[in-house]
Amino acid sequence: xxxxxxxxxxxxxxxxxxxxxxWSADATxxxxxxxxxxxxxxxxxxxxxxxxxxxxxxxxxxxxxxxDCVAGACKITHARPSALPKSNFGIxxxxxxxxxxxxxxxxxxxxxVDASAQLQASTDVSxxxxxxxxxxxGELAQVDLITHGTSTAFAALAxxxxxxxxxxxxxSEAEAxxx
Length: 179
Description:
The chain is an alpha+beta fold. The protein is built from four helices and ten strands.
């Protein structure tokens, strides 16, 4: 149990670091009605509001319906989440990561973009489907979460069945060659 706790903590620490680095960069924002543009530090995006800090105006909350992020740290599209094309992808591999950590990460991501994650009923706990929906119930994505063990992550990545591979150990040289 301690090992899984350490793995979960390490994943949380890496995710937190990457997110804070991604959102601490400069971004250029444009007000749709007038074309007025300004730059500042992109602090966060929750699916409906950009949080930007500028030297002149300080910290501002900008509604996605009125502002576009046009340059710099625009990690997301300026279309509303419900207007984005539906995306289906696979996450394959490690049982310990896939059954415990990954559903929490997917749920946390959904919450961060003002969406929800629903686990679809399944008779096989190693093959789950998680549906991400917007506030109105529109489907944004479906994630196939397949947990047959770490060795299956690399094969699924190699054959295109997975966009993300989960591994609870380092990749072997033979597995690396398949990618």
